Automatic annotation (TrEMBL):
Pfam families: Lactamase_B (PF00753), WHD_BLACT (PF17778). One of its GO terms (molecular function) is hydrolase activity. SMART domains: Lactamase_B. Keywords: Hydrolase. CDD domains: metallo-hydrolase-like_MBL-fold. This is MBL fold metallo-hydrolase. It comes from Nonomuraea phyllanthi.
Length: 262
């Protein structure tokens, strides 16, 4: 067994045997409780998604590690709430930053689908999961039967398809994660925001069903005469807090592009 422990309430301190979460203090409607910074390893560690450029959080992560050595910083993707503090944190701990997008790297090595990163005997398998963003990655920890999902799957609610992503890619990535979770007997999803998900198959099935339902709702809204993302949001997202409508418009635009390409 992985030894998974999920505390009640805030995800801060959530852990598996080899991964521990330190929550960044950037809560919002988009980031839920804040960005989950994951520390993986033993006496040597890698840090996944240092979070925004918030010195107090970065210092807290560094101080929490104590004498443990950081061998690398990995990014699930380049959005600021995950990557903004990476360079500052790299300077604090003397470690390279590895990412799919070269713009976010610090050092000679990037990350790509199929890569395996090892730290203190802990393997981290890299899966390319574009969709939320073009550079989204997920990280599988075989010893813990756990998958770090970044913003591809959140601990609560659903994610958006950002302007640098695409729905066709996202749907393929969800299908891939669903197949991988089943074949590798995943026991937990460790998201970039929100609590740990202890039912990976159920969570992924829910995500896939939700996306298909939204597409049906958008088709129906179009049939009623709605054409622009804003017009569709007013119909499809009428029960969603208006503070989230701008983000919803982004997702609707991606869904319209997807439908128009069929």
């Amino acid at each position: 067994m992985s030894g998974l422990h999920i505390p009640i309430g805030t995800p801060d301190g959530s852990r598996t045997t080899h991964a521990e979460n330190l929550l960044a203090p950037n809560p919002s409607a988009m980031t839920l409780d804040g960005t989950n910074t994951w520390v993986i390893g033993g006496q040597e560690v890698v840090v996944v998604d240092p979070g925004p450029d918030d010195e107090s959080h970065l210092r807290r992560v560094r101080d929490h590690l104590g004498e443990r050595r950081v061998t690398g910083i990995l990014l699930t993707h380049g959005h600021f709430d995950h990557s903004g503090g990476a360079r500052r944190f790299a300077g604090m701990v003397g470690a390279p930053v590895r990412a799919l997008d070269p713009r976010h790297r610090l050092g000679d090595e990037g990350l790509a689908d199929g890569d395996v990163v090892t730290v203190d005997g802990v393997e981290i398998h890299v899966y390319g999961t574009p969709g939320h963003s073009f550079d989204s990655l997920c990280f599988w920890l075989p010893q813990d039967h756990a998958m770090l999902t970044g913003d591809t799957v959140l601990g609560r609610g659903t994610t958006i398809v950002a302007r640098d992503g695409g729905l066709a890619d996202y749907l393929r990535s969800l299908d891939r994660l669903r197949a991988v979770a089943e074949s590798l007997e995943a026991r937990a999803l460790l998201p970039g925001h929100g609590p740990v998900l202890a039912d990976p198959i159920g969570a992924l099935d829910g995500y896939i069903a939700h996306r298909r339902q939204r597409l049906d709702q958008i088709r129906a809204a179009r049939a009623r005469g709605a054409r622009t993302p804003r017009e569709i949001v007013r119909i499809v997202y009428a029960d969603v807090d208006r503070s989230l409508w701008a983000a919803a418009e982004m997702s609707v635009a991606a869904q319209l592009d997807y439908l128009d390409a069929l």
